[in-house]
Amino acid sequence: MAESSRAEWTIVHRDPDVLLLRGRFPVASLIGMGGTYDVVAMVPNDAACAAVAESGTATLVFRTSGSKVFELGPCEVLAFARPL
């Protein structure tokens, strides 16, 4: 079963490989991330993810099995981090 919630962010970094999105990612709490109101998510910088990143909001889905554990719209979330 998948858990999901609305995520909201702004783009704080972009390079040819990845985009860093800083904002609210409530479902990240399911892996022990505290303070999910201010988290950075890393997604690939490709055509599909760039469009999602520019939108500033999407549904974040968490799955307990499969190859893509977190998906932000059609984008796989590669990592989460807490900003300093």
**Helix/sheet category:** mainly beta
Number of domains: 1
- Spatial order of the strands forming the largest sheet: 6-5-4-1-2-3-7
Arithmetic mean of pLDDT: 94
Task: Give the low-confidence spans.
Answer: none
Oligomer: single chain
Number of strands: 7
Radius of gyration: 12 Å
Q: Tell me about the biggest sheet?
A: 7 strands, antiparallel
Give an overview in words.
- The protein is mainly beta.
- The chain has one domain (3-81).
- The protein contains 1 helix and 7 strands; from the N terminus they run βββαββββ.
- The protein has one helix spanning 47-55; strands at residues 3-14, 18-24, 39-44, 57-62, 70-72, 75-76, 79-81.
- Strands 6-5-4-1-2-3-7 form a 7-stranded antiparallel sheet, with helices on one face.
- The longest helix has 9 residues, at 47-55.
- The N and C termini lie far apart (33 Å).
- The model has no long low-confidence stretch (mean pLDDT 94).
Question: Descriptors for this entry?
Answer:
single chain, 84 residues, mainly beta, 7-stranded antiparallel beta sheet, 1 helix, 11% helix, 46% strand
Write the SSE topology.
Blueprint: E1 3-14, E2 18-24, E3 39-44, H1 47-55, E4 57-62, E5 70-72, E6 75-76, E7 79-81
Antiparallel strand pairs: 1-2, 1-4, 2-3, 3-7, 4-5, 5-6
Short description:
The chain is mainly β and 84 residues long. The chain contains one helix and seven strands, in the order βββαββββ.
